[in-house]
């Protein structure tokens, strides 16, 4: 559900993106080796979680959980985005960061922050760059 919320947010807030899809679409692109015909595109998927300190007492188990979401951006070197003089990937990264950092997904208890970013590949004029974001929620189990 968190991935769906991020996809919706990017579709609404980052108008330069031609498409925003999930892990299945990203996997299909990687497996086929066929680059998207229209770029820039974003693929959103869960990239891990980490549990924090846990507390258990009186039938309650409570633990903070940090959840990571990755956004893989694909664009061609010929794409034009944002202000002249700015590399297209820089403008696109900034738009995605602005859309997600400080934003709280529906039903969550914390905002997203940026964890990392790195280039995954640059091949035949297609750049793939991944941004990783994190948000914290609280796991509560009552018995």
Supply the key terms.
alpha+beta, 143 residues, STM4215-like, 3 helices, Phage_JBD30_tail_term-like, 5-stranded mixed beta sheet, 5 strands, Gp37-like
General description of the model:
This protein is of the alpha+beta class. The protein has a single domain (2-142), classed as STM4215-like. The protein has 3 helices and 5 strands. Helix 1 packs across helix 3. The protein is elongated. The two termini are 25 Å apart. The mean pLDDT is 91.
H/E element string?
Answer: HEHEEHEE
Mean pLDDT across the residues is 91
Q: Low-confidence parts, pLDDT < 50 over ≥5 residues?
A: none
The CATH homologous superfamily is termed: Phage tail protein-like
The CATH architecture: 2-Layer Sandwich
The fraction of residues assigned to DSSP E strands is over 45%
Task: Specify the structural class.
Answer: alpha+beta
Strands across the major sheet, in which order? Answer: 1-2-3-5-4
General shape: elongated
Supply the CATH class. Alpha Beta
Percentage of residues assigned to helices: 10-25%
Helix run count? 3
Q: Report the major sheet.
A: 5 strands, mixed
Gyration radius over CA: 17 Å
What is the count of distinct domains? 1
End-to-end separation in angstroms reads: 25 Å
What's the CATH topology label?
STM4215-like
Task: Compute the number of strand runs.
Answer: 5
């Amino acid at each position: 559900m968190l991935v769906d919320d991020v996809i919706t947010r990017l579709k609404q807030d980052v108008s330069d993106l031609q498409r925003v899809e999930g892990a299945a679409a990203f996997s299909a692109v990687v497996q086929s080796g066929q680059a998207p015909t229209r770029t820039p595109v974003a693929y959103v998927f869960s990239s891990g979680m980490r549990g924090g300190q846990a507390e258990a007492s009186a039938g309650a188990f409570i633990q903070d959980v940090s959840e990571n979401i990755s956004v893989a951006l694909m664009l061609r070197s010929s794409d034009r985005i944002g202000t002249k003089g700015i590399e297209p990937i820089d403008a696109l990264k900034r738009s995605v960061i602005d859309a997600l950092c400080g934003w709280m997904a529906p039903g969550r208890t914390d905002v997203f922050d940026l964890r990392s970013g790195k280039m995954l590949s640059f091949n035949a004029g297609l750049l793939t760059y991944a941004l990783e974001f994190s948000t914290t929620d609280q796991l509560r189990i009552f018995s």
